[in-house]
Amino acid sequence: MNSEVDVLEMKNVYRSFKQGGQTLQVLRGVNLDIKKGEIVALIGPSGSGKSTLLQLAGLLEKPTKGDIYIQGQKCSELNDGVRTSLRRDYLGFVYQYHNLLADFDALENVMLPQLISGKKEKEAKEFAKWLLSKMGLEKRLKHRPAEMSGGEQQRVAIARALANTPKLLLADEPTGNLDPKTSDIVFNELLSIVKETGLSALIATHNFDLADKMDRKVKLENGKLLDLRAEKFVSVKNFY
Q1: Rounded distance between C-alpha atoms, residue 45 and residue 27, angstroms
Q2: CA 84/CA 138 separation, integer angstroms
């Protein structure tokens, strides 16, 4: 695919939910584009729809209206099998809670998605070791989640999200469950490895200090996306 194409593009995206016989409109014509290598902070109050936006960007949900493009490919009307393939090949996910496999050690947790994608065991192991080393975990490879601190577990989760070399990393409050000091350390490691590998990233956070470390910030407000560089709504067209 053309490397000049935006890694992610959302065009006039709406998302509504049925709730108690009424329609709850969460997103109202969101437009967003993320370039190759760009790290974007997604901020907004609780309940503003940040997680919904990330779910849509990650092809885990479909918009009520509007289009989503990954690497220039229109995804809104693709079947579940193709969407799953796109998630595997282009997207990495990090959540506030690490969701590691308890019976597997750190190395195995990071190897597994690579093996599922068909990578040879030796190659998967070497890359997993490299990722975990970049996250400061070279001495914790054989530790299971229960034997690691919260910060260490989240580092493993970040390494796992990067295991299949995605084009776009989507992170939902990736350090929100950590104390401030550990949060800063883990987040700096995350930014460092994302920049080193040339990834793009969309990272939801409540922490403005962390948001300031990214390339730019966008804010969800009343279902609209506000570009904080331009101080105006990215999407101003309202179809309702």
Answers
A1: 14
A2: 31
Please say whether the beta carbons of 225 and 32 come within 8 A. yes
The alpha carbon of 189 is separated from its chain's Cα centroid by a whole number of angstroms, namely 15
Q: Are 182 and 151 in contact (CB under 8 A)?
A: yes
Q: Would you write out the chain's pLDDT as a tens digit for each of its 240 residues?
A: 444 789 999 999 999 888 778 888 899 999 999 999 999 999 988 888 899 999 999 999 999 999 999 999 999 788 889 998 898 889 999 887 778 999 999 999 999 999 988 999 999 999 999 999 988 899 999 999 999 998 899 899 999 999 989 999 999 988 887 888 888 888 888 888 888 888 999 999 988 888 999 999 999 988 899 887 644 444 433 322
Q: At what angle do helices 150-161 and 121-134 cross, to 10 degrees?
A: 130
Whether the CA torsion 160, 179, 97, 89 is positive or negative: it is negative
* Total-model pTM: 0.87
Cβ–Cβ < 8 Å for 237, 228: no
Q: 49, 11, 8, 17: which is closest to 172 by C-alpha?
A: 49
Q: What counts of helices (H) and strands (E) characterise the chain? A: 7, 11
What are the strands of the beta sheet with 22-34, ordered from one edge?
Answer: 22-34, 8-19, 65-70, 73-74
